[in-house]
Amino acid sequence: MGDNAVALSECPHCHTTVFPKYDGTCPACRRNTRDLRGADTDKTSVTLAEQEPLPPVCLLCGHETDRTRKVACSYKSERDENAPGTGLAVMAMITGLFMGLLLLLATSPSPNVLMMRVPLCRRCRLKKKEHVRHVDFPNRQMTFLAHRVFRDRLQERRASTGDMDRPGSPAGRVDKPAPRLPDGSGH
Ligand SMILES: [Zn+2]
Ligand SMILES: [Zn+2]
Fold first, then answer.
1. Ligand 2 center to 45 CA (angstroms)
2. From ligand 1's centre to the CA of 30, what distance in Å?
3. Summary count for the chain: helices (H), strands (E)
4. Torsions phi, psi of 17, nearest 5?
5. 54: closest CA among 167, 170, 156, 140?
6. Strand (E) positions, the chain?
7. Over its length of 187 residues, how does the chain's per-residue pLDDT go in tens digits?
């Protein structure tokens, strides 16, 4: 990059996208973004849109999986605050115990509820944590702390279907057909 320009980047410690200070300090967690000791560099923040097709790769560990899990977040509006960005999201894990909730959510869509199905392998499902970092209700997006392999596969998928829902890709552009990924079985 240029001279002393401070670029917007993801902190390797807290995975928040920040403008680090000139000495590299992350304004969010105050650790040094240039010092990778102790950082989980396998993880990265990934923002997923509602209904977005996702690769068959575990969100948390990056292994191939055809298992998915629903994650539902509801906007806590007890005080009816008008600032969605500062609102706390309450995450409800949809397990067998919460099938009633699931049905409720599915039958009564609300702008204050966001539900997504994310790929999680058998082992990671047991962790009961999808690492939801942020929920953007107005834009119908959730940000997860995901494995880099998942992020990379997602980007490949977005690139190959880019003309459908990625606003940044020019409509008239002719892309090479994406190479078929070796994703195991057929249908
Ligand atoms: Zn940080
Ligand atoms: Zn996994």
1. 16
2. 6
3. 4, 8
4. -80, 120
5. 156
6. 9-10, 17-18, 43-49, 68-75, 89-93, 113-119, 132-136, 141-147
7. 445 566 899 999 999 999 999 999 999 999 999 999 999 999 999 999 998 999 999 999 999 999 999 888 887 654 444 444 333 334 444 444 455 555 555 555 567 889 899 999 999 988 766 678 889 998 999 999 999 999 999 999 999 876 555 444 444 444 555 555 555 544 5
Measured between alpha carbons, how far is 63 from 122 in angstroms, rounded to an integer?
Answer: 10
* Residue 113, beta-bridge partner list: 74
pTM of the model: 0.66
DSSP bridge partners of 71: 93, 116
CA of 151 to the centre of ligand 2 (A): 13
Residue 137 CA to ligand 1 centre (angstroms): 24
Q: Using an 8 Å Cβ cutoff, are 156 and 149 in contact?
A: no
What is the Å distance from ligand 1's center to 156 Cα?
A: 27
